[in-house]
Amino acid sequence: FQMPTNEVTRLVKDAIDVGYRHIDCADVYGNQKDVGLAIEEKIKAGAVERKDLFITGKLWNTKHDPQLVCATCQNALNELKITYFDNYLIHWPTGFVDSEEKYPLDANGQTLFSNIDYVDTWRALEALVDAGLCRSIGLSNFNVEQIKRVFEVARIKPANLQIECHPYLNQSELIDFCRKCNIVVTAYSPLGSPHSPYNKPGTYKLLEHPLIVDLALSYKRAPALILLLYQIQRGNAVITMSTKREHMADNLNACSFELNETEMKRIDELNFNGRYNLMENAKGHPHHPFEY
Ligand SMILES: NC(=O)C1=CN([C@@H]2O[C@H](COP(=O)(O)OP(=O)(O)OC[C@H]3O[C@@H](n4cnc5c(N)ncnc54)[C@H](OP(=O)(O)O)[C@@H]3O)[C@@H](O)[C@H]2O)C=CC1
Ligand SMILES: O=C1CO[C@H](CO)[C@@H](O)[C@@H]1O
């Protein structure tokens, strides 16, 4: 997400070279063909085998119609030059009308919502597992009630929930719920999306918060590593991204030290329900997952 368009292939190759194996993709990022070139090159060069990679894909809001799901997933696989996803998610619970535009609009500039129920979309994802196109399936940006609805109908239970998660939005309740349901949580924007326009003046960027900086100094590590380790010690998978090879390499050192219980608690207490990813284009959608 948000990698400079003409650098995606090089950056994904760098990531594989420095040791990353989970590649988080989505139709809406618009760069799967370039990610696919990197995967193909690295496999051909013998740097990595397909089975060692964990590739996540996400179905975008305009393709929730069960009739469209299989072709959409197959198209993403073709772009990525792979034959299966390790993990495939419904990106948001909010369906839009089918369109080649990511955000189809009416004449007044309002997003055109569809009335497709994500529960029906879920059944189409189950068929992808049956067909061997996905090894596991899951959800992204769903709230507790929405996950419960999926669980009620699911023949194949969601294996994963990908959500925004960092100390300003620690997601404790949602994570506790997922633990009980055996759902692995993946934390996105773990560094607080430092380039997001939602970093408000008057609020510290997470990487610059005095507590995070103090901990970083005391452990002689970069602030980013404190934020990544915070997720790992909570038992979450964590995905970040970088356009800099040195950041990529350094971030992999997040497991080289340990935060104690008091430090974890102090980080947890930074929570104020501070979201960076509001999905404002779906404001007013009956399935919008959160209030703001
Ligand atoms: N399911 C969903 O709806 C969503 C999923 N995601 C996924 O999560 C990923 C990460 O989320 P994102 O919002 O980018 O947020 P992050 O919080 O991971 O922030 C990424 C930014 O952090 C900077 N950074 C990385 N490492 C370091 C470091 N060691 N020191 C200082 N700065 C660093 C990078 O800048 P630099 O290039 O300078 O290193 C980059 O701009 C996305 O790429 C996407 O795959 C994201 C949003 C929504
Ligand atoms: O993953 C994400 C980043 O890109 C999208 C915006 O274009 C977001 O909606 C989404 O949550």
TrEMBL record:
Instruction: Enumerate the Gene3D superfamilies for this protein.
Output: NADP-dependent oxidoreductase domain
Record keyword Calcium present: no
Residues given in the record as substrate binding sites: 91
Q: Where is this site: Lowers pKa of active site Tyr?
A: 58
Keywords (alphabetical) are: NADP, Oxidoreductase, Signal
Catalytic residues (positions)? 29
The record ties this protein, via PROSITE patterns, to: ALDOKETO_REDUCTASE_1, ALDOKETO_REDUCTASE_2
Annotated NADP-dependent oxidoreductase domain ranges read: 2-271
- Which InterPro entries does this entry report, sorted A to Z? AKR, Aldo/ket_reductase_CS, NAD(P)_OxRdtase_dom_sf, NADP_OxRdtase_dom
Any one GO MF annotation of this record: oxidoreductase activity
Q: Which family does it belong to?
A: Belongs to the aldo/keto reductase family.
Q: What is this protein called?
A: (Mediterranean fruit fly) hypothetical protein
Q: Which organism is it from?
A: Ceratitis capitata (Mediterranean fruit fly)
